[in-house]
Amino acid sequence: MKGSHLFLYLFSMSCWLNLTPTAGNKIFHFGPCRISMSVTEIRSGFTAIKANIQARDPIRTLSILSYPHSLHRVKSSDRCCITHHLFNFYVDKVFKHCKTEDSYVNRKISSIANSFLSVKRKLGQCHEQNKCMCGQESTKKFKQILVNYEGLNVTSAAIKSLGELDILLDWLEKSR
User: Nearest Cα to 95, choosing from 80, 81, 106?
Assistant: First the structure.
């Protein structure tokens, strides 16, 4: 009888630990999809290189993420979809084209990219399980972001998008 209580206790603790976010991680709710991520860690890495990256941006009059209402007023039902698209966008388009001659900056970019890749995979699982439905609004908003991105050459667009990472992080934290 004592063995079964010990097993139940250990099993319960194991389940609890798996559901508890690791240090610095927060649980983000995107509709029925729950994702654990450390925005603080991503922001810290970005803050360390933000001035360097933004100094490389030759076009100050255009924004990719801040185009009027790109991330503003996204319905809670569309948050998962647009977040899924944005993490795919950053992993597949932005980070691949953000190389500098500064190894410190490249390491920070790589670290941020790895964090994004981890979240992208988790969001992909939600999407595959039909927990992350895409409505017309999220599709329209993401298409506008792509139009803004594709209006520039690849390197300029990638640097600009990376320089605007704080806009995405602020939006994620506000929509949490």
Answer: 106
